[in-house]
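thought: fold this chain, then report.
action: predict
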Amino acid sequence: MSEHQETSHRSGWRFWQGRSAGDTTPGSRVSAVYFVESTAVAGGLVATIAYAAAGPSASLSVVSASVMIAVAALGSGVLVGILFGVPRTTPGIDRQAGGDAAVPAGGAIPQAASLGAVGANTNLEQISDWLTKILVGVGLTQFTAIKREASQLFHGLAPALGDGSGRASFAGSVVIYFFVVGFLTGWLYARLRLGLLMSNTDALLELARRADRAGDTETAQTARERANNQLALATDSLATPTTGTTDLILQYNRLRDTPPSTRRTSQMSEIVRQARRLPDSQPFHQLDVVQLFNEGTHGSRIVALALMETDPRLADFPSVLNAIQNSRSGFEQYHALTVANLMAASLSADAKAQLQQALESDDVRSKWEGDTSRASLAATILDRLRSSSS
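observation:
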């Protein structure tokens, strides 16, 4: 095999995986899943059409009927999959605290993952929950009846596939195959796309309401526009990070998979330095940084924190608080503490109280045991918070 052929072969394999080498972003993983599902649907349709066209009574009507049976089963599976996968809403930080308790000075944006609840009504969620329980309950108690009805369905569909032998068996295979593929497609869409779409939209609408109350009409309008664009964002990519951050995220994620060492820490610090230089070459909005943090990968969270370190206007208190309390690593917590130290003086009284409570909690303090750099930084922040409240 020539070098060119080998390169093409590797590129094709990477494309089939749905990502370039080392690409572990959520968007690339979702694309890989959809590519596999599309391949499964296409393969099933080819087999269905081939069977219908090769039969003794092959005709355009037989082929069309076979395809429609497959499409109907696929659509039914997608619907059931979505019903089973509709995200559940949960109370957010702000709702638990009451009102604007979590709103920092400057109109910082609440973290989408923390808010969780959706501003619209939850009828679809309730219906999904009821139907899921009904379907599972009926399936467990009426299995024999379901088996009998399914057999009747397959025999009823058999004449549409022509006059060949084994038509009922093939009709059953088509229905089961495409229903399963459709179910997985609907369930994965609800889990991977719909949940993020709902939480991001809710976070943006919550920001707009807070900004309106604070008199910040520009931020409110921008947040509403972003919320309106969430459907397009969810269709095109999964919270695609701002241009320039992708490579840094991938580099950091790859480093996280290597054994801990001084060299690894040095390389991670270099990635943070590169991320800090990004605002010099392109504009960033606080919404971009929050959405980047909410990607949820190690790399996206670190890059978002690095951007917050560079420009205080990009800093988002709920995201920083999350990175301190639920840090993925000591490295991440250190940079979250760095941002918190920069923000401390401009935080609202409620936000300062939340930060102080977090830094004084045993769970958080246990994370930096033996690490003097984080312990010293936390002590500095606490001294500033206590002096400002006295």
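thought: worth noting. Residues 111 and 322 are 8 Å apart (CA to CA).
final: tokens above.
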